[in-house]
Amino acid sequence: MRVLIDECLDWWLGRALPGHDCISVPKMGWAGIKNGQLLALAQVEFDVFLTADRNLSFQQNTTQFQIAVVVLVAGSTQLSRTSPLMPQVLALLPGLTPGRVVIVTG
pTM score, two decimals? Predict the structure, then answer.
C-alpha cells in the first residue's frame, strides 16, 4: 500500500511499515495544505493517510475520499511515543477500506 505520513508525524515511521511505500507530506511538497485539500490530493496517489490529528474525522467527511485514515493517539507526536504503535498499524493496513477512519492507541 502507499502510505502518506502527515507532517505532524516523523517520516521515520514509514520504516516500521516494511512492504509498503511510505512518503511524508513535506516530501510530496504538500506541507501547509489543510486537511480537506490534502485528502483530496492524497486520494489520487495514496491508499492510507497516517496522522496524529484527532480532529480530522470531525472536521472532514472522510467517507467522500478514496483514502483510509489512520489516527495515532500516543500522548505526543514524538517518534519514541508513536513508533510503538506501528505494529498495530502494520497489522491493520491490509484490511483498510477507503473513507474509513481507524484510531490506533498505545
Answer: 0.95
